[in-house]
# Entry
Amino acid sequence: MVEKKIAYTKKEALDFLANHDAYIVAGGSDMMVIKKNVAGYAPLFDKDVLYVSHIKELANIYEDKDGVHIGATATMHEIEHHKLCPSLLRKAISEVASTNIRHFCTLAGNIANASPAGDTIVIDALLDAKVKLESVDGVRLVDAKDFVLGVRKIDRHPNELITELIFPKIEYTGELWFKVGSRRADSISKVSFAGYYEVKKNVVTKFACCFGAVSIRPARSKELEAKVVGLSLEELKAKQPEIAGDFAQIIAPIDDQRSNKEYRQTVAMNIFNKFIDDIVGGAK
Amino acid sequence: MTSIKFRLNGKDVAVDLDPSMRLIDVLRDHFSLKGVKEGCGEGSCGACVVLMDGYSVNSCLLPLANVEGHEIVTIEGFKETKQFDVLQKAFAEVGGSQCGFCSPGMIIAAQSLLSHNPHPTEEEIKAHMSGNLCRCTGYQAIVQAVEIASKKGAGLW
Amino acid sequence: MQGDAYPSYSWGVNIVEVSFDPVTYQIKVDHCWSTYDVGRVVDERIAVGQADGGLLQGLGYGYLEHMGIKDGKFRNRSLSDYIIPTFEDAPPMETAFIDNPFIYGANGAKGMGELTLVGGAPAIALAIEQAIGHKVNKIPATPEYIMEVINHDKH
# Structure
């Protein structure tokens, strides 16, 4: 008999997880689809379930020296409209699913679900966010870009609960969030891209970018990014084909019911080139 | 089986059901509230939306466990309000409802929008309601209906 | 009201205007204009509703709604995967009816239930052809197909 537990405090949740290998349900928008049964019947859970949406201490959004802390049960709607939250994150969230879903789904749930097409995971990886995991054994911080291990696989020990995502403050000149879905709203990404840059006195002083939905985990290369830092805008323009060619190697798109690999590869690089064009052209 | 207590259409209720059950099934089967429709069961169509604490949410995705302590309003409860009266007349005026399958969800989504943004622009209406699909109307009449309701119901939201 | 609406044809003209994004190969439907001869319109609100709905369904058929089959099974078998237009995909649609009563029709009316679905897909396919400068021979003309057409014609 599968046990279904509703936790009202973090302590209750951690105590439960200490003794149960359980599915954790926050908003439910992913889990309820994955475990869907026929109409009229409860979802098919093959192990215990822990419901965490009532834990108020996990719903806070606040800032300190480490950055902006976004609680695991804060809804995407709250985050989208919260001035403290990073602009790129708010932009990406505004295109996730629909307003109906954003009213109750969570940021933590999006990364915990670890879908290759997840939009906010791209932002988490780009902005060097950290995932805070707590258990009865203590606290563990994992870099968001390393947290996703595979399709629906994450670096969470069975007794751990995601309690926060922490976004360090990053200053920059310009940013780009670009989502390619199958229609203009309410769609799952075929390709996504996020990037930021800083240009001072005609020289690139910061450069970071991350591709989504074109590999199992968000695709980012700090080595390749470092090669762009220090280039003048003229050098960046001259080296653009070579740089694009390098970045094209870090993605591995596939064919599926939404799209095919040629389209994804081409469009991902079109967007990357548009990003470089924006930087070179001085766009914000 | 724990007893899940919440507020439904203005009344306190307690449900002794599996907390992992979907709210849509609890509403349709346990409470016989058939206004919520299962168009997809995946949160893509919006035909199942209800108001939770005033915000539209997909009842096909909400587990009963998460509803505890919250205020749920379905179309059957919303029907009694002045806001519904304005919306209903607006929808009827411009043909915002044809087969009617999406209509309860559309009205709930419109209420969620107007109660937080009483004078939305056309773009805001389309953006907010894009999680509700309609196959019959081509959406134009529904946007007009929400605009008319917003004007005629000034002060209600 | 008595009559026979069906011994004759009904007619329509659809004009669809689109924009093409060369970065993503995506199509945006900007505006549609339609006129129909259905004899005499009995109820304008219902007729315009049918015109709007049928046209959007036809447009979806023409550029969005892909039903893929793999190993004999549908690939796009849920509303998350079978893509129909949303509010944000719906263009402004202007519709006019020509008053041309049909002598055998009830109150002069002819059939119009299926009529408004017919023109949307070919109209948008032709608009896409014009926008991309290459022939479109398949619907839905998805971004993947458009990219294939443009690249194929280059080689």
